[in-house]
Amino acid sequence: MSRLYNFLGFFIVSLITVTSAGAFQYASLPSDNLIQNAWFRNASCQYSNANWQTNLWGGGSKTQDPTDVNCNGNWTGFAARWADQNQNGGFTPNTNALLWQVVPANSASKTLHFHSLIVGHRVNQYKAEIYGSSSSNGPWTSVWKVFDISCPVNKDCMNEAPNGVCNTGNRECLWDEVTEYYLGSLSPLTHTILQGYPYYKVEFLLNYPNPDPNLATGDVGGKLARVYFKVSGGSSLSPTPIKTPTKTPTPIKSPTKTPTPSTSKPGDANGDNLVNGADYLIWLQNYGASTSLGPKAGDFNISGKVDGADYLIWLQNYGT
Fold first, then answer.
1. Which of 3, 20, 41, 109 could be cross-linked to 78 through a Cys-Cys bond (beta carbons 3.0 to 4.6 Å apart)?
2. What CATH number should be reported for the domain whose range is 2-232?
3. Taking a C-beta distance cutoff of 8 angstroms, is the pair 54, 100 a contact?
4. pLDDT at residue 6 in the model
5. What pLDDT shows up at residue 180?
């Protein structure tokens, strides 16, 4: 059996080898995935939720769960799980079980790419939402609600998929058809936001109802596997500033300065250190005028005007 997958613009042919009932190989994820432990397994081929944070989710393995490596010789897959008789213990209906991972990213990038494989029966809510923040600790801003499913107790998410009942253990029915029906694609979805963030939180919320006593155990809840998230676009480099042509400044007219008092003798207009007739003639030539030249124009008291007060200063110092 073979299936052709179109993933990120490349056609990847996955030869699906059946080694036991319902066991199938799935295409590997690209190396640009920001999510750590996207398959919920460790190097020893055991279920692991390392790198994830959760308040209630558990998980496990089944041969019909998706996998990209041959674990335990039979292509056993792994998945996070929140359902009745969950691995975390007990039965907790009508409770929000959260599973999330915070990843760093390039804040200049504004295009988000996401995909995951999901499966579920009856759920009050099964939601995937992306949040952004300037800090790895939040506060968080919702930037993309990828899917938000509700299959109440009188429905079954699997039965809502086009090909009907999916209880045969067939991986294509359990995972592919449900994922494609609710996410709309088996390839990554994209969403462009107005503002990029240096941190994103990829969060899953699952809440299941009280089970129908007439149905088999396991008829409520859901599972998650093969989570993919990246950002693209923008640049990691700071843009080179554009040099603005230098504008020739408009000359600023300096305000008229108050003349500095002369260091020569009072009444000495020509600066020869003598107070005599030559200084009187300078005063006389400028008498009645306004000036900013001070004693040089006969304005000996530096009042801004050459007048009788200046003559008296000259007269008092005449001959010195």
1. 41
2. 2.60.120.260
3. yes
4. 35
5. 86
